[in-house]
Each structure stands twice: as structure tokens, then as C-alpha cells.
User: What shape does this take?
Amino acid sequence: MTADFPNTKTVYGPVPSWRFGESLGIDPIFHQSTCSFNCIYCQLGNIEKITNEIKEYVPTSKVVEDFKEILDKKIDVITYSGSGEPTLAANLGEMVISLKEMAPEIPQFILTNATELGNPLVQENLKNMDKVIIKLDAGDEKTFSLVNRPAEGITLKSVVEGIKSFRKSYKGSVEVQTMFMPIINSNELEAFANILKEIGPEYVQLNTPKRAYPLSWHRENRGNHLGIHDHQISNLKVITKDEAIEIKKKLEKMTGLNFYSIYK
Ligand code: SF4
Assistant: This one.
């Protein structure tokens, strides 16, 4: 089922990103919230279509038309995210090439849950992306199932194997973004650190869900950093600043990697 929203564009923002400046969002999914995860903190609310089906969700020509309309704005980076998992879009690679032709100076990033990174078509689609930011929230299968609630057949192991396969061919920059939930216990940190070491990202961003969980999907939620809602929401428990500092210190020591924390 799809809903009618006032916002009919596949391009949204630019919205301020705490790390990358003015970020223009691209939504290659658009019609319905669609993802291979149904994360308990997702800013889209309960995902309407939980699937890992790769197909064309919105034509490239629609994204190109919407992009042309905002080219006069200040944009530091283009970020593919939007109404679900952007790597499910079979025409993602075509979008990247089209936008690069129109704005070669703007870097293009993607936020992905990494469930499809082992797929050769997705690897091909991502080859011209400047940065791939991978979501990784758990160190073991139990927390993975509880927090990310994946589509059938997807496990933490399959995701990590997919990332490792992707890393062999991808020449751009890889970062990890993690959403720490209070349910993660300290014993799991070591397992999480081991996975990070296997992946070897350039940076790891430590986040906690500061945005409320909407009880239903609204396209207007894409990039909503202002916390203004005209629909029902539920606030989530977050880790505190002290807990975040402690986790960052431990992970830095265990992995030797570079970390950013949302609590600066
Ligand atoms: S991966 Fe992203 S879009 Fe998908 S459910 Fe999780 S937070 Fe939402």
C-alpha cells in the first residue's frame, strides 16, 4: 500500500550533517518504506515492506528531474538514503553516473545496511560512489536480530561476509556507522570490535538514536533533523554521554581504528 504525501520529490534537503556539511538526500526507494531491516529505532517507523528484493523502485529520470530543480542550492555532499535501503534499487549505479555528469564536483555518499554488499550487481552499482557508510549495530546474532530485525535469511554473519567481499573490489572510502542501543551489553563490545577489525573502515561513527521513533511512515521524515512531527512518535532510550565516551575509549583501544562520536 502506498500513501499520498505532499512531498513528491525523490530529492530532499539539503539537511545539515554533523560531519559532512550540507547534505542533499536522494531517495531511490520513495513510494513506500522498503528495507531489508526493520530497525527498532528507524526514523521511518515500522518498515512497511521488509524485503531484500533488488529492482527499480523509481526511474532514474525522475531523480534526475528532481535533482535539476535544486542545483542552485549550496550542496556539500549528495547522500543516498531516504525511504529505506538504497542498495535495493537496481538502477542505483545509473543514478550515480547521471548525477556525476550534472555535478561532478559534489561527492556522492551512501548510507547502507550492508545486507546486499555481497551481490555482484550491488558491487557494480556502488563502484563510482565516493564513500560507502555501512550500518553495523551488533556484535552477535542475538542483538542483531533484536535491533535490526532483518528480512528472512539475513544474518550478521552473511552481512559481514558481504562487506568483506565488497571490500575486495571497492576502491572508495568505507566508514561504519553504529547506532548504540542501551540493550547492548559490554561483553558484546569485544565481538563488535573483532568485526570492526575484520572490516577495517577508515572511520567509525558512534551514534545513539536521538530522533524519535514515528509510529507510521511519513515521507516528510526523510532528513527531519528538527524533530517537528505532525504524527504520533515514541521517544527511544539512548546511551548517555558518559556511556558513549566510555564505549569509544574501549573500542579505540580494542581496534586501533578512528572514531567519531555524536556526543562531541
Ligand atoms: S536500515 Fe535504515 S532504513 Fe532500514 S530499518 Fe534500519 S534504520 Fe530504517
Summary: The mean pLDDT is 89. The chain has one domain: 11-261.
